[in-house]
Amino acid sequence: MVAKISSGSSIYSALAYNHDKLKKDAASVLMVNKMIEPFDGKYSIGLCTSSFEPYLSANKRTENPVIHISLNPDPKDKLNDEQFSQLAEQYMAKLGYGNQPYIVYKHEDIDRHHLHIVSVKIDETGKMIRDNFQHRLSMRICRELEQNFGLTPANEKQKKGVYNLKPVEFEKGNLKQQIANVVRPVSRTWNFQSFNEYKALLSFYNVQATEVRGEKNGKPFHGIVYAALDNKGEVVGNPIKSSKFGKLTGHEALLTQIEKSREQIRNKKLKERPEDVIFKVFHKSENRKDFEDQLFKQGISVLFRENDSGRIYGATFIDHKQKFVFNGSRLGKEFSANVFNERFGVENNTDEQFKSPEQGHSEFPDNKDSSIENLAGLFGLDALGEDYQEEAFIRRMKRKKRKKRKN
Question: What is the pTM of this model?
Answer without folding.
Answer: 0.52
